[in-house]
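thought: user wants a sequence for this fold. calling inverse folding tool.
action: design(structure=
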């Protein structure tokens, strides 16, 4: 049994390294084939193997996710979070549940086998629960990160909208133009603006398309911008003037958020100072005196 544990650990590490090597090698091969296909004018053929492999994995995870029982309230919140994180496919919910189940089973299998720790049913069940919850935490983190990126790019988008509208473009054409210009600097916001254009071309009303933007992103600044544009369109006021005023208000809010974050720095530094730096300083300053005190007092006490 003692010899079996190192052998199993070696086999597990070998499989892990081999799987990672195959994944990276397949990714590099797909990238090279894609570039060669672009040069040769056959891009679809170049990316077909990688696309088929990703679709196969996604289909397998989606089939696993369909077997998981779901509640309507959880489905609504989860779908909204997936959209906020940028995953809008119809199969996104099933794939997420498949990832959650697969990760939970993997954690249970790793902790229940004598590979890393001694087998323990309670630890394995706890690891299974953590593995089931962890993908949701990662998804929430991805959604917040994407919302932060959209919030950072909103000021530049407003400036470009003001310039485009004042140059004579309509609001729809200005949104399309800004979406194209922001494709390199702020990709997430550019995708959302392009999606507005697709909805407008499909026949949706402008107010509904703008409200869908606020619901998809979940950013409060975008919601206030949408409310301003809907009111401007409804009452017929100047779009350029409204955008300019809103841009100044948004920059003021950004400066206030930066000042608030700077004011919180002192409070946040208390915990690392108390638990990390202060004990080290205490040991360095008081430690030698305490050692000398013990060396003097202990022999006297023994006498």
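)
observation: tool returned 303 residues.
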């Amino acid at each position: 049994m003692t010899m079996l544990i190192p052998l199993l650990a070696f086999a597990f590490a070998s499989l892990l390294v081999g799987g990672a090597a195959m994944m990276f090698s397949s990714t590099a091969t797909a990238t090279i084939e894609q570039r060669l296909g672009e040069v040769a004018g056959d891009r679809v053929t170049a990316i077909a193997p990688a696309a088929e492999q990703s679709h196969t994995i996604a289909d397998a995870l989606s089939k696993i996710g369909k077997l998981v029982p779901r509640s309507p309230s959880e489905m609504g919140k989860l779908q909204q979070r997936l959209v906020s994180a940028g995953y809008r496919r119809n199969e996104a919910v099933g794939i997420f549940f498949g990832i959650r189940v697969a990760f939970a089973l993997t954690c249970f299998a790793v902790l229940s086998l004598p590979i890393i720790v001694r087998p323990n049913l309670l630890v394995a069940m706890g690891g299974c629960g953590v593995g089931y919850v962890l993908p949701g935490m990662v998804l929430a983190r991805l959604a917040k990160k994407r919302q932060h990126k959209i919030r950072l790019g909103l000021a530049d988008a407003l400036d470009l909208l003001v310039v485009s509208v004042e140059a004579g473009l309509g609001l729809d054409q200005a949104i399309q133009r800004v979406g194209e210009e922001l494709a390199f600097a702020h990709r997430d916001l550019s995708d959302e603006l392009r999606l507005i254009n697709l909805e407008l071309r499909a026949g949706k009303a402008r107010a509904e398309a703008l409200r869908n933007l606020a619901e998809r992103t979940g950013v409060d600044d975008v919601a206030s911008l949408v409310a301003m544009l809907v009111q401007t369109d409804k009452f017929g006021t100047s779009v350029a003037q409204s955008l300019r005023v809103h841009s100044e208000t948004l920059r003021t809010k950004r400066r206030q958020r930066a000042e608030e974050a700077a004011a919180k720095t002192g409070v946040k530094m208390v915990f690392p100072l108390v638990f990390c730096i202060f004990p080290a300083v205490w040991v360095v300053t008081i430690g030698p005196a305490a050692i000398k005190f013990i060396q003097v007092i202990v022999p006297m006490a023994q006498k």
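thought: summarizing for user.
answer: Here is the designed sequence. The CA atoms of residues 235 and 254 lie 28 Å apart.
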